[in-house]
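Exam prep: given the inputs below (a chain plus 2-phosphoglycolic acid), describe the expected output before reading on.
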Amino acid sequence: MAKKLIIGNWKLNPLTIDAAKTLAAAIDQSPMQEAVLCPPMAFLAAIHYPKLGAQDCFWKVKGAYTGQTSPAQLKSMLVRYCIIGHSERRELGESNEIIQAKVAALLEGGIVPVLCIGHGTTRQEDELAVVDVLKDQLNSGLAGIDPSKVVVAYEPVWAIGQGRPATPEHAEKIALYVKTKYNVARVLYGGSTNSTNAAAFLQQPHLDGLLVGGASLLPDDFNKIINLTF
Ligand code: PGA
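Solution:
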């Protein structure tokens, strides 16, 4: 079976470079599954791990853009993946158009975009209503782009950081839909995953991995997840 892709999204943690280095050093370097660490941008160059990801990037390669990070700069730090359109960024005003521009810039720069979808869905909605929201995010985010080079992460916003994940069956249905309709490279699930519930998601046939937030800051938990076997 192909290795599952487990991406650790550290978000705005930890607060010091020393703590970041200590955290990275505690993560298994050659796990059973494919593991990627996404530290905060400020620490990226100082973190040594076989596979690194970024949490965001700019859509222009160079120029007068104060405070931005270029896909080319990420590439030069050996970054392979970049999360784009996380609900926490959409909440700050990032539009589908901006997200599409970032996805395109990353592909141009040779970095795999991890396009997050799920913002705007609610726990109560039935699957058809959820699919309507996701369709909009996918149609815009992937416009003019070769989807087979993109990883999609389904992250229902109500499940993020809540300790209440979606059910593996729901995530599987969405993954099947996204894969068959959009032909993307891989589909991940994210939202309150941990070492106790990860296996149930990863056993679903169309779920190719996980985007892990809180549990990626806990080495014991994260090491268990990246070493699960099926
Ligand atoms: P969580 O976050 O695992 O802490 O719910 C996931 C994410 O936001 O990527």
